[in-house]
């Protein structure tokens, strides 16, 4: 793994996770912390990494780029913690939250069933449901999971071509899975109502940035190659009360 991290992520003590989300709008956890809180061994999560080698191209990039590959699946996390995979559906966001790609139905291939039904994946979703419940109160959570690979096919790859944004959900989890042969990809989080911000680079596999989507906006800076074939893999999971967007 190659990294040009300049500013390391400000890790949040697990005992301060809920208070950090409420007061700052974000928290950052290491892979070990994720594993402990989700009750999944970090090495088990890392075994999913090979599935990022089989992501189809994203055919909806309005900038004409070829740098993004992805899969997308939906799940429902009940108040009892039970996770069910929802019927496959297109991804939709309003223009209010995604001025570049909002307002259209985007159809992506689903996650591999070997991951979507795996007990460790379900445990991870159950944990994210608990985080969302501590933030907003007990309710059913509608989760969308996005596997992304941003590569340097075009010389530059844009993790967030829409720029700094909110997602129109309650909780966002951005897991870093891999950085290979790149520079850039800096994470930036800003207070949605003020000037305060934080910047850092996630580079540990299965470390995570958790965001209160109502409180902050976020983006990742473009990546550039340090060697041929450079890429950045992430898993983005959003949780929303009341239903999936577009319903």
Give a structural overview:
By secondary structure, this protein is α+β, with helices and mostly antiparallel strands. The chain has a single domain (14-241), classed as Jelly Rolls (Sandwich). 17% of the residues lie in helices and 30% in strands. The protein contains five helices and twelve strands. The strands form three sheets. The chain has a seven-stranded antiparallel β-sheet. The chain is globular, with a radius of gyration of 17 Å. It starts with 16 loop residues before the first helix and ends in a 6-residue tail after the last strand.
Sum this structure up briefly:
Helix content is 17%, strand content 30%. It contains 5 helices and 12 strands. The strands form 3 sheets. The protein has a 7-stranded antiparallel β-sheet. The protein has a 3-stranded antiparallel β-sheet with strand order 8-7-10, with no helix packed on it.
């Amino acid at each position: 793994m190659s990294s040009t991290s300049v500013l390391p992520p400000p890790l949040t003590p697990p005992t301060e996770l809920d208070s950090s989300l409420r007061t700052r709008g974000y928290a950052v956890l290491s892979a070990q912390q994720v594993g402990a809180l989700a009750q999944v061994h970090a090495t088990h999560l890392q075994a999913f990494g090979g599935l990022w080698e089989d992501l189809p191209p994203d055919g909806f990039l309005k900038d004409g780029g070829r740098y993004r590959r992805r899969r997308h699946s939906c799940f429902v996390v009940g108040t009892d913690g039970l996770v069910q995979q929802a019927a496959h559906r297109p991804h939709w966001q309003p223009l209010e939250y995604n001025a570049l790609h909002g307002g259209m139905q985007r159809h992506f291939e689903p996650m591999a069933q070997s991951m979507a039904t795996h007990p460790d994946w379900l445990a991870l979703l159950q944990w994210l449901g608990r985080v969302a419940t501590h933030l907003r109160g007990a309710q059913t959570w509608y989760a969308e999971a996005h596997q992304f690979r941003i590569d340097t096919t075009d010389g530059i790859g844009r993790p967030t071509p829409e720029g700094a944004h909110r997602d129109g959900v309650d909780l966002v989890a951005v897991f870093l899975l891999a950085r290979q042969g790149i520079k850039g990809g800096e994470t930036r989080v800003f207070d949605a109502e003020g000037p305060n911000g934080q910047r850092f680079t996630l580079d540990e596999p299965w470390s995570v940035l958790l965001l209160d989507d109502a409180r902050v906006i976020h983006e990742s800076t473009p990546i550039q190659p340090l060697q041929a074939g450079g890429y950045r893999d992430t898993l983005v999971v959003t949780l929303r009360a009341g239903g999936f967007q577009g319903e």
